[in-house]
């Protein structure tokens, strides 16, 4: 009978028939402890998976305390209890209902060494995490910090909840964890990484390492994002907000709420702060911080008014065809950047002085495993291009500039080796750093100039193509060379190579590849330019209407169309011959490394420009000459045909526009733009 009931229980649960499942359980209470799947899940595990809060509550309330605790402590094949699953999915009601019955469940570990409190933090379930945190604090009989820290760490690798929330980019929750567990700021995992080092390895979370187009940049700068207040309440509140309108009208409700706030002169945020100040009791320190906030000379409703205008701007962009999801994605990116900066500031300000050092032995949060710290955070940030972190660390701990990694490379050498222009510009502006850190050499005797001359395994610059990469490689080398201290002398590394020799050696493959592309492009363009020159010469010698037999002057001379024909045919001939000469000069080039910096790109840019001009001029001269042989009644009918004739030229210009922009900007810019799509994923192993 029991087997039939268990089988029925499984079938009902799989079909989502929870009423029948509850009835089957009432007939056979022992079936609740049966493991009904291959993963050894009980029916409560499945109910938590599927979010059946009412079913779980009825079942737990309907059994005695001893059976209830046995069921809640049952683990599946991965060692997860039902509280593990509830915390992972972020179901606050289930977490509260289970954890209040036995607080030991909060610290129970699965086979990976994860507690429910840990899983809630890792998956960014803020409410579930705060709920479990409060229940754990309320049921703890003593203030044993070691036992408290024990539940916040993953046993398999020593990562704390702060490591994992930063790695998962849940920065809002990470800020609250820092306030609740300040000891975790200085914790290291079994790989020797601190939370600050984990954050340093995530350049995509910072604005300096994010590439945005013009329109994206405008929307990014116009978006208003609130920072997370330090005085925000981090306690779990079981009272959920109830709205008197359907959830799909939330956008409209927000819009009218902002409109009301603008008119009345009180912001929603200010109103909520007033309510919180009446309910919660602030400490004297928090009140002092609040009173120290800047007082702006604006009306009290200025914040709401700006928010209202921002929403109006978004509405106009949506009407103009810019997607709301696209705008929301940019705004979420800005939120992530601001919160990452907040987390970074908290980690640096709350961390100990040893946090910024490269090599020291530290106890892990377990208190049992010793782990040696890897590269200092400033070195990782310099390598990954996180300018904000490098600047903050140097302002907080100036002596961090002397930190070196296992290869004796300091922050300057790592920034130059990994082609990080933002970090390089920051370091180059500080005269003290230029006089000291720029003179550092690594364990192989390579100076900053040697590392700038060494080409790595991937293409770091944003421009496509080997020729453009070669151009920026030489410009980067020249930029670093010009920024070296005045009395810096050319030196040899341990292999007896100068920086110039190293540049030629490591860039041979890239120069060869870039030369092939330039030669192939020039050959194709030379053929087109020669064809256009032939047509332009034949056209320029033909006079529409012929000459006057008495005077020798053209019969149609003086007419606007004839003047256009005469000028464009001459321009076509001159520009096509110029393009032919420029492309031939590229073909006869020796493709030396320094030629890629200015000479070859300039010839390519001028050649493409004159080729485009010659093609356009030939078409215009043809249309102008053809205009004379069309009858008067058909003159207006041929205008659309002339416009269609210009479409191929327009298409050619549109296709070549990215290359034009890259070549033109390369002539103007001194500091190149780096591509952040490729990062060193082996960072932790490297150190």
TrEMBL record:
Highest taxon in the source lineage: Eukaryota
Principal cellular location given in the protein's record: membrane
Keywords: Membrane, Transmembrane, Transmembrane helix
Transmembrane segments: 308-327, 525-544, 564-584, 604-629, 641-661
Domain PGG: 516-628
Disordered: annotated segments: 269-293
Localisation: Cell membrane
Pfam families: Ank_2, PGG
Topology versus the membrane: Peripheral membrane protein
GO cellular component: plasma membrane
PANTHER family in alphabetical order: ANKYRIN REPEAT PROTEIN, CASKIN
Name of the protein in its database record: PGG domain-containing protein
Origin species: Vigna angularis var. angularis
